[in-house]
Amino acid sequence: MKEKLKNKQGITLIALVITIIVLLILVGVSIATLTGENGILTRASDARTQTEIGDEMEKVKLSATGAKAENNGGEIKRNYLNDELTSYIGTEGTDYTLSESETAPFVVTYSDSGRSYVIDENGNVSEYVDIAESVEVGDYVDYNPTVLDKSGTPVEENKLTYTSPTGSGTQHGNGSRDQIFTATANTKWRVLDVGNETVTLISENPITIDAGGNFRMYGAIGYLYAERELNEICKIYGYGYGADTSQVTKYSYGGPIDGELTGEITGSGARSITIEDINKQAGITEAEYTTLNSDYGSTTNPTVNVYYPTITTSNGKSRSAGVKNLEYTSYYYSKTKIENPNAKNMLFNGNYWLASRCISPSSSSSSFIVSVVYDDSTNAGSLCSGGSSLGETAYSHFAVRPVVILKSNVIDTNTNYETEGHWNLK
């Protein structure tokens, strides 16, 4: 019996350790099989997500088809689309949101999942791609303002040219002479801003008149209609393939006693750059204007009546002094306010007009001004100044700088940017 017990060996420590290691390996393999990148649980989750995406997209497709049918197979209208989405998804604002644009592309976002889908002008539906993940400020985009589609169908010639007239106080113009601009395919375009549904482009360089030389605005007429003329010039760049022609460009015109006069340009995806565009890149809000000019918002100067520009006379000049205590709306700053080097170098490239007017009163007169980019800063040039009379000047001759609003879904984010040197359009 004693001899038999000697031959009975128990579990050694080494065997126990080996057993535990083997069990841990098996547990690890099991966990990986369940939760790894290609694990059962991960694949199940992915399958569930894809099923949800398929279901969401199907409802959006049905809504787009229904909206197109409501308009007899024509352009999808937002109100029709919203009705269809309500039928298939639920309540707008609670179950989904629909982009504000009245024309395609439309973006539909599900409230629960947060996923978004794009409906193009043909009713095709695709998952929304955040363009900002690929496209950056300063990038080049292969936009051509002279063609309507990828096959190269030309834009109507009359849309590609604009003659800014001399004008008068009662008729819009630049106050100097007739000046012609023509849009060509030669202009290069860079990204100025990336939004949710649009990408804003800016011409690589400021643009001059066809005959050569900068655009000239003069005196009271130049001031009265500066914003309109600059936007009319720049609109010729907004009819190309990909441009968001649903844009509405608003501008102000007139003098200080003419009332709050505004106009608008429709049908084009382009407009002139403004001081607000540069402010956005500099991170400057209206609340900060007084830090740039302590007089901003003041209405204490001038304290005497002064002459002023007005649309009520043929020469644009008031016949007598009649306004005082005008609001001070002028300010300016250096390019150092902009931190992004791409945006800074792109915006402060040459001297050009901004479609933004302002007023700079003093103790006995008031200057009526159009904003400009000049020598590494935003600045302001007086075209006329009222005191005991209305003096007129041509502050200087500057180029113009169009910006184009593109539909973000036309940019092909699969472009090899390093190879191409620009983003292609789909």
Element pattern in H and E: HHHHEEEEEEEEEEHHEEEHHHEEEEEEH
Distance between the termini: 90 Å
**Oligomeric state:** single chain
Gross morphology is elongated
Number of strands: 19
Number of helices: 10
Give me the side-by-side strand order of the main sheet: 5-8-9-19-13
Layout of strands and helices, then pairs:
Layout: H1 2-7, H2 13-35, H3 40-70, H4 78-88, E1 96-98, E2 106-110, E3 116-119, E4 125-127, E5 140-141, E6 161-164, E7 179-182, E8 189-194, E9 198-203, E10 215-216, H5 219-224, H6 226-234, E11 248-253, E12 261-266, E13 270-272, H7 275-282, H8 289-292, H9 341-347, E14 352-361, E15 366-373, E16 378-386, E17 390-392, E18 397-398, E19 402-407, H10 417-420
Helix pairs in contact: 3-4
Describe what this molecule looks like in 3D:
By secondary structure, this protein is α+β, with helices and mostly antiparallel strands. The protein has two domains: 40-128, no CATH class; 140-420, no CATH class. It has ten helices and 19 strands. The strands form six sheets. It has a five-stranded antiparallel β-sheet with strand order 5-8-9-19-13. A hairpin with a 5-residue loop joins strand 2 and strand 3 (116-119). Helix 3 (40-70) crosses helix 4 (78-88). The protein is elongated and about 110 Å long. The N and C termini lie far apart (90 Å).
Fill in the keyword field for this structure.
single chain, 426 residues, alpha+beta, five-stranded antiparallel beta sheet, four-stranded antiparallel beta sheet, 10 helices, 26% helix, elongated
